[in-house]
Amino acid sequence: AQTVTQSQPEMSVQEAETVTLSCTYDTSESNYYLFWYKQPPSRQMILVIRQEAYKQQNATENRFSVNFQKAAKSFSLKISDSQLGDTAMYFCAFMNAGGTSYGKLTFGQGTILTVHP
Amino acid sequence: DAGVIQSPRHEVTEMGQEVTLRCKPISGHDYLFWYRQTMMRGLELLIYFNNNVPIDDSGMPEDRFSAKMPNASFSTLKIQPSEPRDSAVYFCASSFRGGGYGYTFGSGTRLTVV
Questions:
Q1: Pick from A4, A74, A48, A76: nearest CA to B45
Q2: C-alpha span between A65 and A67 (Å, rounded)
Q3: CB contact under 8 A, A103 and B91
Q4: Is the pLDDT of residue A78 over 80?
């Protein structure tokens, strides 16, 4: 079974600065997807960014980018120019790209990010 | 599209009562998922459907939990009888062709069993 580990329960950053959230995962599969979801106090789960394991290029979405290290099974999220609205719980998640577990998202325990003015 | 719609947003019930949570997925999505979120256990997959057929219900905690998807636009998660330890936020999510592009989540139902 796949596992996803987020080793930072809480992080904080000043507005306009850059912060990196860590995530590692364990799998024997070679083809899979990785995601970061954001959950603000409203509790809505919002997709931030996704990465396909067979693509070497790191995904980027505006101020959000990832550092995907397949050999190390690491998938960190970098938030640049942090904004107050980035304050939320961030979840790293894994999904096999095929097989019997295709479609099932496995989540990490989450990192609470607080952006200070 | 209005997104994934869940109802009710909040539910408070007494132990032993039946609880029914409802979900309307995004039109055209062929996968539907039910997750439960608690402080202790995080986000857990309970069950998921593909084209209205249950594919994996191994995450359903007990026989007290049941889920149905009678058609492509509606699903229910039922707990009977409810217990205080069922208190959690229950999310429904839907996706197209499995979710390689990610799920779209509903806003969740916060269930409190007293």
A1: A4
A2: 7
A3: no
A4: yes
Contact partners, residue A11, CB within 8 Å, separation at least 6: A19, A21, A111, A112, A113, A114
Which chain A residue has its CA at the smallest distance from B90's CA? Answer: A43
- Distance (Å, whole) CA A82 – CA A79: 6
The alpha carbon of B33 is separated from its chain's Cα centroid by a whole number of angstroms, namely 6
Chain A residues lying within 8 Å of B43, measured CB to CB: 91, 107
Measured between CB atoms, does A32 come within 8 Å of chain B?
no
Contact: B100, A45; criterion CB under 8 Å: no
Q: How confident is the model at residue B1 (pLDDT cuts 50, 70, 90)?
A: low
Report pLDDT digits (tens) over B4-51: 999 999 999 999 999 999 999 999 999 999 999 999 999 999 999 999
Nearest CA of chain B to the CA of A18: how many Å? 25
Give contacts of A110 with chain B, Cβ < 8 Å.
42
Question: H helices of B4-113, where?
Answer: none
**pLDDT of B62:** 85
Per-residue model confidence as pLDDT tens digits over B43-77: 999 999 999 999 999 999 889 999 999 999 999 99
A56, with CB counted inside 10 A (0-12, 13-18, 19+), is exposed
Q: Chain B neighbours among A 44-103 (CB < 8 Å)?
A: 44-47, 50, 52, 91, 95, 97, 102-103
State the Cα–Cα distance between residues B65 and A2, nearest whole angstrom: 25
With tokens 């539907």, the residue in question is B32
